[in-house]
Amino acid sequence: MMSGKVELSLSSRMKSQAQVAAVPLGTLIGRELRTEKVEKPFVKFGQSGLARKGEDYFLMKTDCYRIPGDSSTLFSVFAIFDGHNGISAAIFTKENLLNNVLSAIPQDISRDAWLQALPRALVAGFVKTDIEFQRKGTFQNLFFLGRYVVHTYADTLSLFAGETSGTTATLVVIDEWTVTVASVGDSRCILDTQGGVVSLLTVDHRLEENEEERERVTASGGEVGRLNVYGGNGVGPLRCWPGGLCLSRSIGDTDVGEFIVPIPHVKQVKLSNYGGRLIIASDGIWDALSNDSAAQSCRGIQAELAAKLVVKEALRSRGLKDDTTCLVVDVIPSDPVLPPIPGKKPSMLTSLLFGKTSGNTTNKKKPSKLTSLLFGKKSGNNTTKAANKLSSVGVVEELFEEGSAMLAERLGKDFPFNKNSEIFRCAVCQMDQLPGDDLSVKSGPFFSPSSKPWEGPFFCTNCQKKKDAMEGKRPSRRTVRA
């Protein structure tokens, strides 16, 4: 009897609720599924390339987790490494950069805190990778010899000499709708968004084109000029001397001045629910194609084929004069049921999801509310915080951007330390060290008077020396690259 009363009571309650909100269960489930799909987009990608020197390497990793074993913390990483003067630096960076970045992020923090910590961790990871590459020896190079194809005799010598090679690095981290890009050198990442708006997410560190970097290099003790042949006028692009490198930032290149720094430009943006397409490529692509032409060459094409089309267009425009490597990554909503608006030119996203549409525009069905929200005109709402900038179409929110080459400035002053043990953790290499071990008050402004709180970031002895060298505070090895 009691069971029957309970069943009757529950039945009456359900009927009452149904009268208040008469929404079919299937509709409610559909709403929940659509909401989840909008929050977590699909990531589709493709890669293509042609080798001339064989010094380009890339990384595509879609099974990264902020918390190991927790599928809800999944994120993806894509990267291009364009080596020069050999392949050793590019290989080493591909093998170690991501782990060095992730090791600089505190454990057991929320997703929002993780994303906020990521830009600083990228800086620490790039610098740590550069320091480790300088220290690596012949045995590590022999290990690489067994894993990678050596294209030329010069590459073999580079693997044994190792430390004289260098590489650009463009690393892209995609966590749901948030895209974070860190780069040194002249490999590039562009973003193609709804409406055909193309945005550059990196900064080229070429001395020829970057006046701010030229001033930094000369202020740190380097010289900038063109190649001088037999006392005549300078020829070719602007280079940094000693060494003759055209770039002002890279990983490796330890035979040139240490004012060639591994500190990356970092930009973090949040895409709208439209998603977007990322094109990440080495300079073999960008020397042949503009940002807009690269984006236009592959619109409406799935990522795998799109990468091949970009390489093909670069080859058609300039020929194979350099290694050309291209990654195309699409961040798109998981719900593909988004019909094109009648009479309106299909967007990039619509083309990606549905392919080319016919010219038939006889569909008289009124667009749904969801369709109007996604494809209709955007409002002029400017209530976001002043620190957050929007692109010209209002669909990409800029969360963070910094390109300073001053390491202490990039790493900040709030690195934690164990107050009970008085042990400090180096902001770069993540090694614990007592503040007084092998450190001098004269070695840098990171010691504060006892009456004041600690002012970070803290650097261990080796990382402090690296920081001073990058800022021109101690002599660098002055050798000239042949």
Topology:
Elements lengths: L1 H19 L4 H15 L2 E9 L5 E10 L8 E11 L3 H15 L8 H25 L2 H10 L5 H9 L4 E2 L1 E7 L2 E7 L3 E6 L3 E4 L10 H9 L3 E6 L5 E8 L9 E2 L12 E7 L4 E6 L1 H4 L4 H6 L6 H16 L5 E9 L15 H7 L14 H7 L13 E2 L5 E7 L4 H5 L12 E2 L6 E2 L27 H10 L12
Antiparallel strand pairs: 1-14, 2-3, 3-4, 3-5, 4-11, 5-6, 6-12, 7-8, 7-13, 9-10, 12-16, 13-14, 15-16, 17-18
Helix pairs in contact: 3-4, 5-6
Description:
The chain has helices spanning 2-20, 25-39, 88-102, 111-135, 138-147, 153-161, 211-219, 283-286, 291-296, 303-318, 348-354, 369-375, 407-411, 461-470, and strands spanning 42-50, 56-65, 74-84, 166-167, 169-175, 178-184, 188-193, 197-200, 223-228, 234-241, 251-252, 265-271, 276-281, 324-332, 389-390, 396-402, 424-425, 432-433. It has 482 residues and is an alpha+beta fold. Helix 3 (88-102) runs antiparallel to helix 4.
Total E-strand runs: 18
Structural class by SSE content: alpha+beta
End-to-end C-alpha gap: 96 Å
Alpha plus pi helix count:
14
Silhouette: globular
Average pLDDT figure? 76
What descriptive keywords fit this protein?
single chain, 482 residues, alpha+beta, nine-stranded antiparallel β-sheet, five-stranded antiparallel β-sheet, 18 strands, disordered N terminus, disordered C terminus
Quick rundown:
Keywords: Hydrolase, Magnesium, Manganese, Metal-binding, Protein phosphatase. The chain has 482 residues and is of the alpha+beta class. It has helices at residues 2-20, 25-39, 88-102, 111-135, 138-147, 153-161, 211-219, 283-286, 291-296, 303-318, 348-354, 369-375, 407-411, 461-470; strands spanning 42-50, 56-65, 74-84, 166-167, 169-175, 178-184, 188-193, 197-200, 223-228, 234-241, 251-252, 265-271, 276-281, 324-332, 389-390, 396-402, 424-425, 432-433.
